[in-house]
Each structure stands twice: as C-alpha cells, then as structure tokens.
Design a protein that fits this description.
The chain is mostly helical. It contains 5 helices and 3 strands; from the N terminus they run ααααββαβ. It has a 3-stranded mixed beta sheet. A hairpin with a 2-residue loop joins strand 1 and strand 2. The protein is rod-shaped. It binds zinc ion. The site of zinc ion has 8 residues, from loops.
C-alpha cells in the first residue's frame, strides 16, 4: 500500500506533536507558576505569623522589665526606710521586713518570667531568620519559574509549528484509506495507530507475535495489523 513505509515516520511526528500540545496546554494553564506562587505566599504568611509573635513577646518582655525595675526601686526604698531611723517600733519594723521579703519574692518570680520570654524571643528570632530565607528562596523560585515557562512556551510553539509542517508534507505520500485507519486507531489507542515489529515483537503492545502469524503478515498484500492490539504494524 502506498506510503506504508512512511507510516512510522508519521506516527513519530504525531506522537511528538501530541506531547508538545499537552505541554503547551500545561504551560498556558500556568499550573507550575501557580504552584510556585502559592509556595511563596505560604512562606510569606509563615514569616508574617512569626513576626506577629515576636512583636507580642517583645511587648511582654518590656512590660516585665519595667515591672522588675519598679519592684527593685520599691524594695530599695523600703530597705532605706529600715535603716534611716524613721521606724519607731518593732512591730512596724517586722511589717516592713515582711513587705520587703514579699517584694523580693515577686521580683524573683517576675525575673523568671522575663527569662522565659527572652528564651522564647530567641527561639522566634531563629525561626524568623529561617522563614526569611525560605521567603527569599520561594520568591527567586517564582521568578525563575515565570521566566522558564515563558521561554519553554516559545520553544514548544516553535517545535509544534515545525512538526505540523513536516506532517502536512508527509500526509499526501500515504494512501488515504490507510491514513483513515491509522487515524481511527490513534483515536482509540492512546494516540498510537502504527508500530514497528522488532524481532517479532510489536513495539506498541510489546507482545511477541507467533512465527506463523509473522510469516502470514510478511506475505500479506493488505494492511498488516498486530494480532494482539490490532494496530497497523510495519516490519523494521
Ligand atoms: Zn501490538
């Protein structure tokens, strides 16, 4: 049949064109760009949360530092009163000593709390640093993906155009009926209508044809088809 020997060439072109069309759709939908954008947004939102927590712990720290200072001043003032002769009797002195002890205890507890906030702040600062780096990486990734996608799309469109014109030049070389069958099979069988037979194996379904069948195919005048997948086969 006319053009039977060109069928594999056509199949290869069609498979290439199909792959390019799929890739073109993917690039035009911008799925990879959207994914990169979402990664960058997530990283930014994580950093935002850490910064809010840092602000809150900073305010707490300042409040506690202020409290420690004022407790210290209060204790110092009371201690001064103990020795400046202004206390007249033992009962008053005992009450003052008791108050000083209370203030010192409160101060010590406040200092413990302050230390806890400082540790938390250090931990948050380390996390913020890491999150900042993640944001920088994600933004760089987003820019790169945008550039890569635009370049790849140009390339895909150029190769697709080439493939189409090669196909247009090849099609008139092939018998119309054979072409029709090939197109039908392509529609039914995942885009593959014709396959080579290499060492007796159909390269589309990978089944080994029997010696009898191979012999029959070699001597047939009509279209040769794989006994398993029914695709058109061409002896390589
Ligand atoms: Zn097959």
């Amino acid at each position: 049949m006319r053009g039977e020997d060109r069928l594999l060439e056509l199949q290869e072109l069609d498979s290439t064109i199909d792959r390019l069309e799929l890739r073109r759709r993917q690039l035009e939908e911008g799925g990879e760009l959207a994914a990169a954008r979402s990664i960058a947004e997530d990283a930014e939102s994580r950093l935002g949360e850490i910064r809010l927590a840092l602000d809150a712990v900073g305010a707490e720290q300042r409040r506690l530092e202020h409290e420690v200072d004022s407790l210290e001043q209060k204790a110092a003032a009371d201690e001064k009163r103990m020795y400046d002769g202004s206390i007249a009797n033992t009962k008053e002195l005992e009450a003052l000593q008791h108050e000083i002890a209370n203030i010192r205890e409160r101060k010590s507890r406040t200092e413990d709390e302050l230390l806890e906030r400082m540790e938390r702040r250090e931990e948050l600062e380390a996390r913020a640093k890491q999150a900042e780096q993640e944001v920088a990486e994600a933004r760089a990734g987003l820019e790169a993906t945008g550039g890569d996608a635009a370049r790849e799309l140009d390339d895909v469109v150029a190769r697709w155009t080439q493939g189409r014109s090669a196909r247009d030049a090849l099609v008139p070389e092939i018998d119309e009926e054979l072409l029709e069958l090939y197109e039908d099979l392509r529609g039914q069988k995942k885009g593959v209508g014709a396959a080579a037979i290499v060492d007796g194996v159909c390269q589309a379904c990978h089944e080994k044809l029997s010696a009898l069948e191979l012999d029959r195919l070699k001597h047939t005048e009509g279209v040769k088809r794989c006994e398993y997948c029914r695709r058109i086969v061409v002896f390589a």
